[in-house]
Amino acid sequence: MTDGERARSRPSVLSPVIGLGTRAATATLRPVAGVVEAAAGASLRLQRRAVDRVLESDELERVVIVAVNSAHIQEALKLALESDGAARLVDSLFDSGLIDRVFERLLESEALWHLIDEIAASPAVTAAISQQGLGFADELGDQVRSRSRKADDWMERAARRLVGRKPSVLPAEPGAGT
Amino acid sequence: MSGVPAVGVGLVIADPVPEQQVAYVGLVTRVISFAIDAALITLVDIIIGVGAALILSLLHLPHGLRIVLAALGGAAAILGSIAYFVIFWSTTGQTPGARLMQIRVRTDDGQRVKPRRAVVRCIGVVLAALPLFAGFIPILFDSRRRGFQDRFAGTVVVEAPGPSIAEVSRAKKRAVYEASRRSPPAPLD
Q1: Is residue B71 part of a domain?
Q2: How many CB pairs under 8 A join A and B?
Q3: Looking at the 3D structure of chain B, how many domains does it have?
């Protein structure tokens, strides 16, 4: 019998033994596995309760405020925002098409148009628009007045030149009068 | 062309202004002012005329009576135009066109134009316009830019700078806002 033949015949001889060992191990460890599973569940519930307590406590608020006000954190954030990685992140965000999808969804949203209607109809906006309209009319009026005064002077000079009369001293500048 | 009447208006300024401080208004500005007034008067005439015609169309009136009514309507339009200028010149001081162009009519000595003088000026405007508007040509040569109607009625047309419509509107809104801030809110029951 060659070595190869001996090796091929070994599994068939050992397999009952191996199967027996596996079954014994499974039977032995089954209660332990249940205990471990129960312990893991209890641990998870404990963690959740702890997180809830932390979130409900005033301490978290204090920690957040201290962290936000921390010079180190602000400096770190500044460095992070100025880094090439942040720029690449923003580029990838836009390249991903996510922003486009956000705007597409926004434009399809009824709530957005309702909000726009509300803003457009608000007294502050209508007042601002009417003021802008009046401002435009004002500007137009100023232009017309300014040009008409120039035309007054021009026409007077032209008429005097036409009849060969000496130009008179022009009246005071517009706005200087009564 | 009839730029002159627009300029007018009863002057609110009571004190005579020293000569060197007065800026007299030329022909072009006065024509624009009058054109604005003419547009306003025409618009009102059209609205009234169309309304009257619609009402009369429902009535079966004889032809002769229709002619009389048309003549009366024309006379009313002319009187309305005269009243427009006389009232604005002698009350608010400026016609709407003059207000937009920031000009005003006052007497030679800087006083407010009284109704009688305003009527005389209206007649002067018509007389100035009759000879192919030749009565307005002196505005180009007179040292105080007076036309025939100004000499006839003893008036001048001067600059009247003032706050614009937008500035007045803003000032009103600001006043309302400040008043609302000063007054405490009403207590709730």
Answers
A1: yes
A2: 99
A3: 1
- Which value does ipTM take for this structure? 0.74
- Is some CB atom of chain B closer than 8 A to the CB atom of A145? yes
Residue B189 lies in a domain: no
**Alpha-carbon gap: A122 to the closest alpha carbon of chain B (Å):** 16
* SS3 at position A159: helix
Residue B186: DSSP 8-state: P
Measured between CB atoms, does A30 come within 8 Å of chain B?
A: no
CA distance B176 to A46: 61
In a domain, B131, yes or no: yes
Per-residue pLDDT of chain A (178 residues; tens, 9 = 90+): 555 555 555 556 677 777 877 888 888 777 788 888 888 888 889 889 888 888 888 888 888 888 888 898 899 989 999 999 899 999 998 899 899 999 999 999 999 999 999 888 888 888 888 878 888 888 888 899 999 999 999 999 999 999 888 776 555 444 443 3
Q: Is the distance from CB of B16 to CB of B109 less than 8 angstroms?
A: yes
Residue type at B53 in one-letter notation: A
- Number of domains, chain A: 3
Alpha-carbon distances, residue A46 vs A5, A53, A59, B142 (angstroms): 58, 11, 19, 102
Q: Which whole-number Å values give the CA distances from B152 to A55, A109, B71, B86, B139, in the listed order?
A: 91, 71, 30, 15, 13
Domain identity same for A102 and A123: no
Give CA–CA dist B24/B157, Å, rounded.
6
Shortest distance between the Cα of A166 and any Cα of chain B, in A, equals: 10
Residue A157 lies in a domain: yes
- Domain, as residue range, for A27: 18-56
